[in-house]
Here is the input.
Amino acid sequence: MSLLELPIGARARIVGLHGGPNSVRRIMAMGLRKGDEVEVLYKAVFGGPILVKNLSNGSQIAIGRGMAGKILVTPL
Here is the structure.
């Protein structure tokens, strides 16, 4: 399951990062790593970004839907 598929308010643990090396590097530069717990705070309508809170370090990150689809999670 990808981060993109989670509903608002859902919590999950990142289990993998899918994509090429540049995509993975960019996701990690945003502060998201395998093993982190995240919560979906907001999903913009009409294909806009997703606001995610990293519960491991308290940061909030807006992620485009294409990038969110590359973050593999398991719901908590």
The CA atoms of residues 45 and 65 lie 11 Å apart. The chain is about 15% helix and 35% strand. Residues 3-75 form a domain with the SH3 type barrels. fold (CATH 2.30.30.90). The longest helix spans residues 21-29.
